[in-house]
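Progress note, sequence design subtask.
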């Protein structure tokens, strides 16, 4: 006789995840759940938050939503970030929580540097010019961008992602400034020839490119606002691979419209996605990508596998390899 399957709530069915759990779990999409909550509410024992799961992400912060599912034991969130989770609420309800760790930090840095390079050489405008006989040659003569050699990159947040970015910048012989809550060791600085700035203000005023690599916390929300944007050079490009709310987006739009900074490259925005008529999507000196820095084919498969391993371990009452430890001060 077959054993009873665990019921798992998920935003949408992902074939790779389904294949990993089909023998032991019944996946319930958020759409199916919303259509008949009475059928599933007491059966749900686990929740998987996929990357780009707006409904599940919002629901995990809603006590009323979670209270309707009294038997949830485990929440697994894909990615390393915890800002989208209401950890005190989940822990209060006795729900164990795991993320998928830091597998995507390297590819996040890769995309950040890709955005830097694309901005430096005006890639967005170049693609338009390549398809237009009228602007083809004029663009080549007048809009070639800047070289990275000798340019200054300011990195705000010199954790793993920030340091990976610095390694790439060092290979291009860029000058590297950084600001971090804790200064890196002399050995780390020497490896990438990075100089520490005690204040963000000093970094902003000297950088040709500024890249944000900080987690979203109460301290980093709107870290870059109107005041900080005014400190940048008129040619500086702001690159954000952290979270949309690290930047005051309205202030950024105003700065770009006024020509106060040179451009922006954003893998994260508020909201996601932006409305189709949002100004940032229609500025020639702004690149917006769909918050995909942390996902390549290989990494996504690894993350999915880790998520399932944590989920099944938690449901069986076993240690979860990437479980977040309870912090009473949150």
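Output:
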């Amino acid at each position: 006789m077959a054993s009873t399957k665990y019921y798992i709530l998920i935003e949408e069915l992902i074939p790779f995840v389904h294949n990993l759990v089909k023998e032991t779990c019944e996946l319930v999409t958020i759409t199916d759940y919303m259509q008949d909550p009475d059928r599933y509410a007491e059966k749900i024992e686990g929740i998987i938050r996929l990357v780009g799961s707006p409904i599940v992400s919002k629901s995990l912060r809603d006590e009323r939503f979670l209270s309707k599912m009294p038997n949830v034991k485990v929440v697994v969130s894909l990615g390393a970030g915890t800002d989208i989770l209401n950890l005190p609420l989940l822990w209060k309800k006795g729900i164990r929580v795991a993320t998928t760790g830091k597998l995507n930090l390297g590819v996040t840095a890769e995309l950040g540097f890709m955005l830097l390079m694309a901005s430096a050489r005006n890639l967005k405008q170049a693609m338009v010019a390549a398809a237009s006989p009228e602007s083809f040659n004029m663009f080549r003569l007048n809009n070639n961008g800047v070289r990275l050699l000798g340019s200054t990159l300011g990195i705000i947040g010199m954790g793993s992602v920030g340091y990976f970015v610095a390694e790439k910048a060092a290979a291009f012989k860029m000058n590297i400034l950084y600001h971090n809550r804790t200064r890196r060791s002399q050995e780390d600085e020497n490896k990438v020839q990075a100089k520490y700035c005690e204040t963000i203000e000093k970094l902003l005023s000297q950088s040709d490119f500024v890249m944000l690599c900080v987690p979203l916390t109460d301290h980093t929300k709107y870290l870059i606002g109107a005041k900080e944007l005014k400190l940048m050079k008129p040619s500086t490009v702001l690159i954000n691979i952290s979270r949309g709310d690290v930047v005051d987006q309205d202030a950024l739009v105003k700065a770009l419209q006024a020509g106060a900074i040179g451009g922006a490259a954003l893998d994260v925005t508020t909201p996601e996605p932006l409305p189709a008529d949002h100004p940032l999507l229609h500025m020639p000196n702004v690149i917006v990508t769909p918050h995909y820095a942390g996902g390549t084919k290989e990494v996504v498969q690894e993350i999915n596998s880790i998520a399932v391993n944590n989920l099944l371990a938690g449901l069986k009452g076993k240690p979860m390899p990437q479980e977040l430890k309870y912090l009473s001060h949150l």
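The chain has a mean pLDDT of 92. Work on this subtask will continue into the next period as scheduled.
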